[in-house]
Design a protein that fits this description.
Elements lengths: L1 H12 L6 H17 L1 H12 L3 H27 L2 E3 L8 E9 L2 E5 L7 H12 L3 E5 L5 H12 L7 E3 L4 H7 L6 E5 L2 H12 L5 E4 L5 E4 L5 H13 L11 E5 L3 H15 L12 H10 L5 E3 L13 E3 L17 E7 L2 H9 L6 E5 L3 H10 L4 E4 L20 E2 L5 H6 L1 E9 L14 H10 L2
Parallel strand pairs: 3-4, 3-6, 4-5, 6-7, 8-9, 8-13, 9-12, 11-12, 13-14
Antiparallel strand pairs: 1-2, 2-16, 7-15, 10-11
Bound molecules: nicotinamide-adenine-dinucleotide (NAD).
Length: 450
């Protein structure tokens, strides 16, 4: 590891990664590799998580291909220094911000979108002119292997390199000095990464998880809400960081929502061929432990040997239930009820800030109140999950769900330092700031500094 990182330091120091032409060439090469190997990537995702081709393409490989396409068209603009004029204390000068690459970065990925969630930050790292060491999740070994093959066989190790391995390997990597660490994973491991980074004052981006609420008030279009919530919850069998963790529904429409939701499940989500699988036996057992049999209103028969757990609905759930004590990260949807939106706001203010929040309501007042009262990483009104479909929006958490953000220009900014400077003419020198000082100078300054 140390050798690879040292070679990346030297390569970065040569300034080779910095030119527009180099960055564009690497992005084009990566895009070509993704297109060329898309079938193998999708096969790996099927083997690891039972992701069907549509899901694997839209949420992983196609997502990245589109993102590279966007970056290719925008990079020139992003790299331009920004010029600011008109500062009275800087006569005959211009002020600039010039984005520059941070240097040698480390990217650590999770298991749930094991391809997309390392390639997406990689796109930003390349676009910003960095070198990268990539540590994909060890829990999705087929995808880990294809990422290793694509990168290590096609890029020089002194530029991009994949290191495979578990928590032990990551701990060793975290002992090294990087210029930025981009981590996606659990809050618990995020704390470990943050602590390790502190030793070298390395900046970090922490893309973490949490319990993302979905609020449905009595004015909601239930049919549409049921479709969109089911899609967001059951994509990748619920193993999505921004999946609705639970539904918080107005008590008067709970039964109507339950009926609409079960209709959607019956129609779309009972096909075992296309439904995802839980990543490991450990997670499967953890999920089984969250299901209180007395509260189950819908549950297909689980198949433990396949780690298949179908869409499962729990009703009459309270905040004291086990399922409400941790991020679910599986196809279990607990339903809680409320009577007033004030109650919802007060309750959620007492919880950790989630990565996402969704509100289904036709009431503009309610939309405004919830949005101005509650803090969360990202979200949607009358939709769920689809806020990630645009590269314009920054994607990231707040509080315990993480900090920093990426996607599109935000990835570029995350992996860049905003170098700020002024450039001044030497033709005229205004001496007001130089000593000796007198009453007159102070008077003039006071007039100017207001
Ligand atoms: P995880 O934290 O267990 O693992 C993530 C990475 O950290 C893996 O590469 C793993 O090898 C490494 N790791 C694990 N233990 C470590 C340790 N003790 N020291 C150093 N490194 C260690 O996360 P996961 O189970 O793969 O993913 C699920 C979590 O990720 C959920 O909480 C989910 O919400 C979150 N997540 C967040 C986002 C986001 O964009 N915010 C996206 C996907 C997943």
């Amino acid at each position: 590891m140390e050798k690879i990182l040292e070679s990346q330091r030297q390569f970065f120091a040569s300034d080779a990664t910095k030119s527009y032409a180099f960055r564009i060439a690497q992005l084009k090469k990566l895009k070509q590799l993704l297109i060329q190997h898309q079938q193998a990537i999708m096969d790996a995702l099927y083997a690891d998580l039972h992701k069907g081709p549509f899901e694997a393409y839209t949420t992983e490989v196609g997502f990245n291909i589109r993102s590279i396409g966007h970056t290719l068209t925008q990079l020139k603009k992003w790299m331009q220094p920004k010029r600011y004029k008109g500062e009275i204390f800087l006569p005959f000068a211009n002020a600039y911000v010039q984005p520059e690459p941070k240097g040698n970065v480390l990217l650590i990925g999770p298991f749930n979108y094991p391809f997309q969630l390392v390639i997406e930050p990689l796109i930003g790292a390349i676009a910003a002119g960095n070198t990268a060491i990539i540590k994909p999740s060890e829990f999705t070994p087929k995808t880990e292997a294809i990422i290793e093959k694509l990168i290590n066989e096609n890029f020089d190790a002194s530029y991009l390199y994949v290191i495979k391995g578990d928590a032990k390997v990551t701990s060793e990597l975290l002992k090294l000095r990087f210029d930025h660490i981009f981590f996606t994973g659990s809050t618990k491991v995020g704390q470990i990464v943050y602590e390790a980074a502190a030793k070298f004052l390395t900046p970090v981006t922490l893309e973490l998880g949490g319990k993302s609420p979905t609020i449905i008030d009595e004015t909601a279009n239930l049919k549409v809400a049921a479709e969109r919530i089911a899609f967001a919850k059951f994509t990748n069998a619920g193993q999505t960081c921004i999946a609705p963790d639970y539904v918080y529904v107005h008590a008067t429409i709970k039964d109507a929502f339950l009926k609409a939701f079960q209709d959607v499940i019956q129609k779309r989500y009972l096909n075992k061929q296309t439904f995802g699988r839980i990543v490991s036996d450990r997670h499967y057992q953890r999920l089984l432990g969250l299901i209180d049999a007395k509260k189950v209103v819908f549950q297909p028969k689980p198949i433990p040997e396949e780690r298949y757990m179908g869409p499962t609905i729990l009703s009459q759930v309270t905040w004291q239930d086990k399922v409400m004590q941790e991020e679910i990260f599986g196809p279990i949807l607990p339903i809680l009820t409320f009577n007033t939106i004030d109650e919802v706001i007060q309750t959620l203010k007492g919880k950790e800030k989630p990565l996402a929040l969704y509100l289904f309501s036709e009431n503009k007042q309610t939309q405004k109140r919830v949005w101005s009262s509650l803090s969360f990483g990202n979200g949607a009104i009358n939709d769920a999950l689809m806020q990630v479909a645009t590269s314009q929006l920054p994607f990231g958490g707040v509080g315990q769900s993480g900090f920093g953000s990426y996607h599109g220009v935000h990835s570029f900014q995350t992996f860049s330092h905003q170098k700020a400077y002024i450039k001044k003419s030497t033709k005229i020198d205004v001496p007001i700031a130089y000593p000796p000082y007198d009453e007159m100078k102070l008077k003039v300054i006071k007039k100017l500094m207001k």
